[in-house]
Design brief:
The complex is a heterodimer of chains A (112) and B (114). Chain A is 0% helix and 54% strand. By secondary structure, chain A is mainly β. Chain A is globular and about 40 Å long. In chain B, strands 2, 4, 5, 6, 9, 10 and 11 form a seven-stranded mixed beta sheet that branches. Chain B has a four-stranded antiparallel beta sheet with strand order 1-3-8-7, with no helix packed on it. The chains are: A mainly beta (112), B mainly beta (114). Chains A and B meet through strand 4, strand 5 and strand 10 of A and strand 4, strand 5, strand 9 and strand 10 of B.
Chain lengths: 112, 114
């Protein structure tokens, strides 16, 4: 089955810096790659996603890149703000978007 | 819309007890899922449903039962709780159709089994 690895497990940056979180996946048939943000005591919330027919997608300060050949995808957050502090999860799916396999999460801390 | 709601928020059980975690959504979504979240392991899929009357197993189904009698509700049953089932449980839903890919998660139920 699919296996998703996520790095780093923790990331500390200064406000205004950029943050990059990387994930690799094992199943070349995976075709959907969402990123979720989870704040303390809440459920995960989708922040951006990408499908396998696209190499890059951007939404304001957030961007995701996908390299199908290397089977890895990355989350880029520019101009970080303290409210970006949370746990971020990547995920992959090869079964029509329903069965997501998650990475182990990255705790991002943005210091003022 | 209330979105995805889960009850209870917290629960403590003794080994061997049974209970049902409730999940409801008011978005008329076809697809619903249950995940468990453990420290350092991300979220893992327990069971999912693609519509009323249809359920299937996910990655870690043992010890859990589900049913889907209505579109709105997708309860998760623990028949005989074990300490290994101590976790935070999340329910999620998404609409049907190719354009509806986002899964909406509930606030979670924190379960402790003693």
């Amino acid at each position: 089955g699919e296996n998703v690895e996520q790095h780093p497990s923790t990331l500390s940056v200064q406000e205004g810096d950029s943050a990059v979180i990387k994930c690799t996946y094992s199943d070349s048939a995976s075709n959907y790659f969402p990123w979720y943000k989870q704040e303390l005591g809440k459920g995960p919330q989708l922040i951006i996603d990408i499908r396998s027919n696209v190499g890059e997608k951007k939404d304001q300060r957030i961007a995701v890149t996908l390299n199908k050949t290397a089977k890895h995808f990355s989350l880029h957050i520019t101009e970080t703000q303290p409210e970006d502090s949370a746990v971020y999860f990547c995920a992959a799916s090869n079964t029509g978007f329903q069965k997501l396999v998650f990475g182990t999460g990255t705790r991002l801390l943005v210091s003022p | 819309n209330a979105g995805v709601t889960q009850t209870p928020k917290f629960q403590v059980l003794k080994t061997g007890q049974s209970m049902t975690l409730q999940c409801a959504q008011d978005m008329n979504h076809e697809y619903m899922s249950w995940y468990r979240q453990d420290p350092g392991m991300g979220l893992r899929l327990i069971h999912y449903s693609v519509g009323a009357g249809i359920t299937d197993q996910g990655e870690v189904p043992n010890g859990y039962n589900v049913s889907r009698s209505t579109t709105e509700d997708f309860p998760l049953r623990l028949l005989s709780a074990a300490p290994s089932q101590t976790s935070v449980y999340f329910c999620a839903s998404r609409g049907g159709g190719v354009g509806y890919v986002e899964q909406f998660f509930g606030p979670g139920t924190r379960l402790t089994v003693l």
